[in-house]
Amino acid sequence: MSQPTDSSVNKTAHAFERASLESLLIRRFFFAPAFEIYGGVKGLYDYGPPGSSLQANILDTWRKHFIIEEEMLELDTTIMTLSDVLKTSGHVDKFTDWMVKDSKTNEVYRADHLVEGVLEARLKGDKEARGVAEVQEVEDPTQKKKKKKVKSVAVKLDDKVVAEYESTLAKIDNYTGAELGQLIRDFKIVAPETGNEVTEPVEFNLMFDSSIGPTGQIKGYLRPETAQGHFVNFNRLLDFNNGRVPFASAQIGRSFRNEISPRSGLLRVREFTMAEIEHFVDPLDKSHERFEAVKDIKLRLLPKDVQSAGKTDISEVAVGEAVSSGMVDNETLGFFIARIYLFLTKIGINPQRLRFRQHMANEMAHYAADCWDAEIETSYGWIECVGCADRSAYDLTVHSVKTGNKLVVRQPLKEPRIVDKIVATIDKKAFGPMFKREAKAIEDAILSLSDECLKKAMDELNDKQAATIEANGQKYEVPVSVLQIKPTQIKEMVREFVPNVIEPSFGIGRILYSLLEHSYWNRADDVNRAVLSLPPTVAPIKCLIVPLSSNAEFKPLVTKVSGKLRALGIASRVDDSNASIGKRYARNDELGTPFGVTLDFASVSKGTMTLRERDTTLQLIGTIDEVVQVVYELCRGDLSWTEAQQRLPAYSGEQDASA
Ligand SMILES: Nc1ncnc2c1ncn2[C@@H]1O[C@H](COP(=O)(O)OP(=O)(O)OP(=O)(O)O)[C@@H](O)[C@H]1O
């Protein structure tokens, strides 16, 4: 369960208990149900001091790892989103899940989650029943040799049924509403709490709708993702990047989804923080200039063909190999998958409990070229925490078609080339008098039409001798007498193309909760003593300052040490309560505080201070300045604990100073 690898860490062999972790997280106010004193609302949580700091530190690491290291263009776009934008992106029509209701109580369930939960529970029951039947190697104390022993067989499910359940689960994200209804009938699935039948699945849109302004005429939604804010600003971003691709924009912000039935704590909530990257790339060249630096990183991959065979076997493959074999579609996608792996493991996710699962063809949007989810194993199973998709030219194309604004890259060609184009010609002498004050706006609208819109206008001119042009929010009928649109061969000096988009999309709450599960363990000498082994980079507080006595002599020393740590940007906290030193350390182990410094009488007389490491509870001693410097380097990741042990001598002083 835990992070520490040092053999001196005294971990318990107890199995992970979610209830104990959850009680710690609520008790220490990592997070808590929102509006709790009013009874709370499902799927809404408030983060308290350690949870907020942990999230801020994860986001800070994310900014450094992606925005700063990859020189991305940062954005902060509005949460309230115009409905037209989300209509164009497909969210108004398709951002839906299938919902069923308990036929008697009206309790709602997300249909795919209901099927998944019930089948998983049945398979678990089956495994337990078969567990007793397995051939086990047992020690026979009367004989030197191991002896095989078969216990009584108690098979719960038929093998055929098990295979059917497993293959359904492997494809659970891909079923339509009608198919889910059929599965519910075929597998005789009922509401788990009551045993009542459930209704047929109906579609439910997950967006919270609203209206903008007092008239109620401008419809809006709380955004369900941050991505659209990147696409609608594409031309400005491109301009900011001097007209060149590839480049990436990045945004951290809140998103909202009116989830049907949020039941798994922070993993499925109705308001959450996302961090999204949109990497814009030439569709003809998806190589990545830094791919060489990541190509040897080994990843645990679950490709689509394995899943379509109803299996979940993971292959460990270097990302370079995965791209060259075609398993991962292109270098840029492979690059981001590797960078996601590096980020997640940097903040403390256990690499053995992290896998990248490829979407199957029917799970992916029709326009997507390839898509891999970073899934983290938790007590709730494998959870999608980051989606990483090659979305081709879909987003920019649909916004361009809808608005008539070109969202393209113009690349000067070394050699001119002859191409077939649809070109609009305006008879200006007749056009001006015909449209008077509006003429300029209509002309601009015609000249900025995308290829698809030009083709549509050309067809209209041919069919009804006039094309409908939108300018300044009005529609104008422009007749063939003043506008001609024809296919023409032209000499091109510039290549114009819609870039493709590769989108890594992070759900910060899911990552944060998974990290807390991976970091949680109990000390072997006292199972009630829990520890969160959060790495110093993300730990809410990096260093605890513990004065051994409330004696007035200690006050100036405490002020001095906390001042020194503050000056170095190290988040620290003084615990000068009356609790025993062991208790004070134990409280901070629960908060994941990696280091503690103790001020004792030797600090007053000799200016020394001890340094305790959370996981091992080992202590070192040095002068105040030496210890502060070591803490600083440990927190920056410039020094390991083993190196610190070489720098400072071990402390073997009074017993009550050690936890
Ligand atoms: N309701 C939610 N609560 C918390 N995080 C979420 C939620 N929905 C999505 N996310 C996070 O946002 C990321 C990107 O969103 P995306 O649209 O790809 O998720 P999704 O495929 O709809 O997720 P799911 O299938 O689990 O509903 C996810 O990988 C996840 O980490």
TrEMBL record:
Catalytic reaction equation(s): 2 ATP + H(+) = P(1),P(4)-bis(5'-adenosyl) tetraphosphate + diphosphate
Enzyme class per UniProt: ligase
Gene3D superfamilies per record: 3.30.40.230, 3.30.720.200, Anticodon-binding domain, Bira Bifunctional Protein, Domain 2
GO molecular function, one term: glycine-tRNA ligase activity
Residue span(s) of domain Aminoacyl-transfer RNA synthetases class-II family profile: 128-540
Subunit field text: Homodimer.
Protein name per UniProt: glycine--tRNA ligase
Organism listed in the record: Rhodotorula graminis (strain WP1)
